[in-house]
Amino acid sequence: MTATKPLPQGEEKVRAVRAMFDAIAPRYDLVNRIMTFGLDIRWRRRAVRSLGLAPGSTILDAAAGTGDLCRVLSAAGLHPVGFDLSFGMLAHARTAAPLLQADALRLPFPDAAADGLVSGFALRNFVDLGAFLRETARVVRPGGRIALLDVAEPDNPVLKAGHAFYFGKVVPRIGGLLSDAAAYRYLPQSVAYLPDRTTLLASVAEAGFTSVEHRLLSGGITQLITGTRS
Fold first, then answer.
1. Which of 2, 58, 70, 101 could form a disulfide with 80 if both were Cys (CB 3.0 to 4.6 A apart)?
2. Domain of 44: which CATH number?
């Protein structure tokens, strides 16, 4: 059996994540639609609805990628501003929202600049999740809202086994056929970066958010974390 290569850490992770998303940017949306059977669109709409903010509110989109969440935010009457570490992803974005290349741990925004912040499937890619949450708390005004999406594991043992097989075996095959094989082998492995549910929610609360809620979507394959800036 081939040993699994250790996941990168620190600055090595920053470089690896940037290079990976630069590489898969051209067909990122296509692969997402196929490997989630289009459910990722529903998840993003659910995240935006969970904000509960008034039309015209300014929402930062962390790791905006090709602009999927920005488009949903705009359709809901909100004003998105997207940022991403990967210039390749931003270059393939399909959104009219303003976009900038930026490190999510050192955002070029003043304190309390935004009414809310969203993130789609990026928590495990940040080199320091706690630092990201603290920076999020800095740029979101008191009373503002956050909605964070990422992958999850179903609680049901049967669903958990099926999901593990699909995410660990089928998704890399799809990614290899349509895009970059190495990247789509890494993505299932990157779940190991995520803390357990209790630790994750505690980290969100410690960063400065109240009314923190956790929801499992689509049988538990995706999680949505929401909170209000205290």
1. 70
2. 3.40.50.150
